[in-house]
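Render this sequence as a predicted structure.
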Amino acid sequence: MRIIRYRDGSAVRLAAVTDEDALYPIKDSDFISFVNRAREEGVTPLQAAEQLVQSSTPQAVDWKTLELLVPIEAPEVWAAGVTYQRSKEARNYEATGGKLDASTFYDKVYDAERPELFMKSTAARTVGPGDAVCLRNDSKWQVPEPELGLVLNREGEILGYTVGNDMSCRDIEGENPLYLPQAKVWKQSCSIGPAIRLADATQDPYQLEISCRIFRNGEKVVDESASTGQLKRKLEELASYLHRDNVVFDGTVLLTGTCVVPPNQFTLDENDVIEIEITDIGTLTNTAKWA
C-alpha cells in the first residue's frame, strides 16, 4: 500500500494506492495527519488504508495525466553517506583523482561506528515527480544518486519509504571534503517521490531493487541497478543517529546512501531525463536543467 499526494483541479489531495494501482482518496491533508489519525483510532496506517479500500469505491484516474506532487512536504531532508561499498569506491575515486584502488578517509567513514549524516535539503529546495532538478553552473561532473528514503516522525520512527535523488557534484566533493555542502546543497538539488510505501506494508526493506536510467535525446545512456541488501548499516541505526540529541520534525526524510553510481566518465547534461525506480514504491522521474 502506497500513499500519494496529487493535484485535483485547484485542490491538493492525499490518496491510498493499492498494488493494483487503484486509487482511494484520503480525507487527511497530509501523510503525518493520516498516520496520527490511524493511531488515534487504534489501528496501524496499513489497517487504516485497508479499511478505506474495503469501505469505498476507487476513484477513476488517468495515471498518464495525474499531476503527482512530493508525497510529503518534508521540513528537512537529511542524507547518509558512504553506506554502500560502491559509494565508498566512488568517493575514493573522486578524492584521489581517479586512482581505482586508493584508500582515503572514506574508508574510515565506511568502517566507523558512527555514520556520516548531513543536511541535504529543505522543503523549498525539494522537488517531486516530473519536476526539474537543477545542475550547478560551477560543476563539470554531476550525477544523480538514487537512494531509498526513510520517512520519519519526531521520535525517529520509520513510517514509510520513498524514492530519493541526492543530486551530487563529484568534482566539488572530490576537490575537498569540506566542500560537501556545496557539492550537495543548492536549489532543486533533491527530489523525492512518487509515493510513500507504508512501513508496515513493506515485507523486507533490505530486498528492494534500486534502478537508475538516464536518457539523453531519447537514448538510454545509463542503466544501472543494485539492491538495498548491499547496505552495510541498518536503517533503524541511521535513523537513531539522526535522532540522537537532535530535533527531528514530523515528516523528515532521511536518504540512506547510494548503491548505484553512473560510470566515472559520465556527467549529467541539460535535458537529461532521470528515472529512479525502487521495488514496490514506484519510479521517480525528473529532468535536469541548469540552475
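Summary. The chain has a mean pLDDT of 96. Residues 45-55 form the longest helix (11 residues).
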